[in-house]
Fold this protein.
Amino acid sequence: MIIELGHFSLILALGLSVVLTVIPAWGVQTTNSTLMQCGDSVARGLFFFLVLAFLALCYAFVVDDFSVDYVANNSNSALPIHFKISAVWGAHEGSFLLWTLVLGAWIFAVTLFSRDLSLDMRARVLSVLGLLAFGFTLFSLLTSNPFERSLPVFPQEGNDLNPLLQDFGLIVHPPMLYIGYVGFAVPFALAIATLWSGRLDMAWARWSRPWTNIAWAFLTVGITLGSWWAYYELGWGGWWFWDAVENASFMPWLVGTALIHSLASTEKRAVFKTWTVLLAISAFALSLLGGFLVRSGVLTSVHAFAQDPQRGMYILVFLIIIVGGSLVLYAVRAQGIKSNTIFSWSSREAMILVNNLLLVVATAVVLLGTLYPLAYEAATGGNKLSVGPPYFNAVFVPVMVILFLFMAVSQRSRWKNTKREVLLKKQVIYVIGSAVTATLLIVFLASFKPYVLLIVTIAFWISLNLLENILQRVKRRHWQWSAVFTQSLSYYGMLLGHLGMVIMMIGICCTVYYSVERDVRMVPGDELALGGYQFKFVGVQKINGPNYASDQAEIIVTYKGKEVAALFPEKRLYTARGSLMTEADIDPGIFRDLYVALGEPLAQGAWAVRIQVKPFVRWIWIGGLLSALGGFIAVGDKRYRRLRRQDAVDLPQNLSA
Amino acid sequence: MIMNKSLIIPLLCFFLLIVLLWRSFSLEDPHFLPSQLIDKPFPKFNLEDLHSTSRMRHVDDLVGAVSLVNVWATWCANCLIEHPVLEEISQNGITIIGINYNDNLLKARAWLDRYGDPYAFHVQDKEGTLAIDLGVYGAPETFIIDASGTIRYRHVGVVTERVWSQKLSPIINLLDGGS
Amino acid sequence: MKFGVMKPHRRRKLFLILFLLVVSGSSVGLTLMALRENINLFYSPAEIVSGTAPVNKLIRAGGMVLEDSIFRSENNLEVRFIVTDMQDSEFTIFYNGILPDLFREGQGVVARGSLNEDGVFLAEEVLAKHDENYMPPEVADVINQAHAEPSK
């Protein structure tokens, strides 16, 4: 009954999304303010029914209703309750419902936080979002309905959730990722509304900024958590694989990062107007493309959902309508829009231009690598190839290094023009200072590697420039140190965002160059020395979990004779599916992780064991989360609220336009 | 107004992308192969049983109940994938009849010993004559025949849980209810 | 127009265009080079047996793991197994390391590595798939094609 209620709610949501698309748009065309206003309540109704549908599916999981196909395929009565909830988004149908729900939540947020947006603009934005909601809901109902039952014959026991997904990381990672992905729908809708109204002014950029920031921050958290999950759950200690699905989430992130910067210059200086609109469209287009790649089965990946040509075809058509339509609108309506182009090469505008170019190049690199196998297959009529991580590393990393060099220089740049002495003052000292400190640290604490020296030097250099940036602010207040604490939230957000990237950069480079790893055959009592640590294989015992049986090894780690950690990696057999899982055990630390995973049992009681010491690996995720925090903090800036009130004053004037 | 042509560039790039995606997408989709044989009687055959080669099987052996006829082979990688699903289907009381297509008898028996045998019986189609009569495109393929021995549905490709619950099972229920 | 008498904003524009051309040209060139060096083509057992596959070059290869063909070393992690297209072509893969959880006899497998002069495939990586119902599409192709061609 509840399930039918959920199904019905989803159908109602579809109906409301049609209303939301049509009515406010109609209101705009006929300048009927009543019609425009009704967008708000329709949008809230839409969100309400999506929540209802989602809760109904959660309910089916909690009560083990195996007459529902989706539940039977992805749950099991022995599954712990928190995994039953997360199993809701453990496979295609439910995760798409979550995706739709998240869009509903963003639409709801738009109705709450855009009271001051002029009425006609709000109507346009809601109408565009309504169209997206219509596409998502229809997709759910037509091709991936999670509410379908298999009656009258249904299984007594569920097929269980894929063991890989029975994990805390999966409870949080997909929702965060989806909030980010789908969040780019809001700047997208704003961009389309702007093109539609023909008022491509700075107010548009000001409006998009907080929405873009928050979507970007969520996406950052999502990607970071995904990397962390892959690290401990896929079992072998890698944290980024350049897998097609990872790339699918990474491309919107790169473009989103460019968008954040470009929006700032459009708002402050009225430059790059059409370019910024294009970025806003691209960020969302890449999110949709990601959805297509993941769910259509054209790319093979560890993450890919089950293949279904019907779904792929649907998303492809949706992609053509939405993105194609937007780009046509862009080609037509962006004509004649003039941007302010007066800025010097040392200005912040120029720096942001470089930032944008590099990020777009990086995106193109990733896109090329991701789609090349498809192109090759299409050109040769079915021959398959794969593009290895070395390609991405060889091309992507240099682009990033150049980007980070610019990040250091640009910290002091000012809008319009930066005086040479401001930009260059003490830079030579900073570079030399960074290089010397980096060399000393590397030589005394580790071994000398030129690339590590390069990266750590750049990292220190950026940090010094961030400090210099703060100092300049203090100086402007006549060296009142209290100025450090009285800056705007978006300023702190900016600092934190860049600092996070610096920390991530150090983490990535140290992990890549200083990690040590050994695959060994061990019998109880064997010892292995690695990275200064002594690993002793004590033995293996059998244990039982709620829905699995496990071989659990015990490995004692000592450092200079003192015990540091006892690790218990497992090899689990999940009984419902009969699938084997490697559960690694990790002793985490700020400066190093000790990572142990069990391979397969060998003859004579021996086991294959992989042992790794991974320095600074945690800095990757700490950095990512700090950056995201920066994004969240920036949204809280009072300025956005104050400026909104100014807009509200403009409202009558806008209406008459 | 002067047209700024550079604004069309993104649209062109997108168009290229779509062409590529469309191509790679339409490359493989053999799932829709309408059969000439739907609603026609199952073709006649006279072939050895897989387990007792002395016994000949005829089309009469298929008549009497709604059943699934599954074309499989040991060389067919995807047959292994659908195998657990077939096991489940047979546990639900559905008769499954195997056509062992272009295969080696000993290999086929070993395969069944190893992975289980949910089939009521198997026909050995060594030369592929029956498969030709059926218009089989490749293995696996699965036909639904009704109690009178008429082909009512043809599925090309792996029978997954989804195919079973959404396509085959409803048809079987319908045929069962009608008889 | 001579360079020297160009108006400053013109000159700036020229520099911008030159800069963009150099940057985009070189990055496209480098990218394509990197791409060409790092694609791993897939070869079927038949292509490996017949000598179509290149020797000592990083490629991918795969098929079904032959029953009872897995041999492990007694004192380290060396392992070798035979991969087949279920018809006439078979070749041996050598690997030193931990095999993925879903590696089993009679299952599809894809390995990345290189072929040596003796026709033995030295794998650097044996690829794991994370779903037991999932057949690598390369392997499915191999087996279907091998069967479609009349056996020699």
Remarks:
- The domain at 33-178 of chain B is CATH 3.40.30.10 (Glutaredoxin).
- Chain B touches chain C through 13 residues (CB under 8 Å).
